[in-house]
């Protein structure tokens, strides 16, 4: 669906030693660094779902 909307999906390999299929904090950091590099290189938009004040507000509704 994301590609259909014109989004480029970039897969980031898991951190060495991570359990396949489970996302660790290190995995998230690798993905964040990759996203920040793409923003710097291309002027892309990075939603940064992990560091938005609104994220906590939305979780409060669960």
Q: DSSP helix count?
A: 2
Number of strands: 0
Q: Mean pLDDT, rounded to whole units?
A: 83
State Rg. 14 Å
The helix-strand sequence is HH
Can you give the helix content as a percent range?
Answer: 40-55%
Topology of this protein?
Elements: H1 25-42, H2 53-60
Describe the structure.
The protein has a domain at 23-62. Helices cover 42% and strands 0% of the residues. The chain has 62 residues and is mainly alpha-helical.
Notable features of this structure?
42% helix, 62 residues
Can I get a quick summary?
The protein has 62 residues and is mainly alpha-helical. Helix content is 42%, strand content 0%. The protein has two helices and no strands.
